[in-house]
Structure formats: C-alpha cells, structure tokens
Write a structure and sequence with these properties.
6 helices; mainly alpha
Length: 116
C-alpha cells in the first residue's frame, strides 16, 4: 500500500498540529514541547547533558514521543541514530520541511514519494 498525496497531506497536518495536554513532552531542563516545531527549537538550544538524559543506550525519549504521540515513524527511527542535540535538531528540521512541503503540495503532484 502506498501513501497517496492526500494521505501525505493528512499526515503532514497531524505532524504539525499541537498534541493534547496529556501528551506533552516534558524535558529535564524544564521546557515543555507541544509540537515538532517546539521540539526542534528546544533541541537547538538544549545542553548536551540534557539531550543525553533523554537519548542514550537505555532510553530514547525523543524517538518514543515522536513515534507514539506525533505518529511519525520515519522521524522516530532517524532520531534513534542521532548522538547529539544538533543532529537531532537537524533531523526534526528536515521532517518539518517535508511536512510543510507535503501540506502545500497539490494532490495531483508527484512529489513526496521518497522511501528509504
């Protein structure tokens, strides 16, 4: 089953939308993230030790939140391989760019058919 352009637009809107209050991401540094954009901005200014607290050999808090709450399996998988907050922030930025592009893409377009 392939994802249609209309389906990609629905996914993109979901990824860009704020999550419910009971699904917020609470970072060890006191910040709270409600959207992928919030996560991106937080990762950009995050200290290394705060990133490692949430993303290490024992736990993958960012990846889990993105997979289970945002429901973006591709980004969740990519975040598991990120070793620094800068790498993770860049991965989230690329996904935000893809989501914004998919949201604006006409349904009949051929864009958005990239698979890894």
């Amino acid at each position: 089953m392939t994802t249609t352009q209309a389906g990609a637009q629905v996914e993109a809107r979901k990824w860009l939308a704020p999550v419910p209050d009971d699904k917020l991401f609470y970072c060890v540094n006191g910040e709270v993230y409600r959207t992928l954009q919030d996560l991106h901005e937080g990762l950009q200014r995050m200290r290394d030790d705060d990133f490692v607290y949430h993303s290490n050999d024992v736990k993958q808090d960012f990846s889990n939140w993105v997979r289970d709450v945002i429901e973006d399996a591709r980004l969740a998988e990519e975040l598991q391989t990120c070793r620094t907050h800068a790498e993770a922030g860049e991965a989230v930025r690329r996904e935000l760019d893809r989501a914004h592009a998919a949201e604006k893409t006409p349904v009949l377009s051929h864009a958005g058919r990239h698979h890894h």
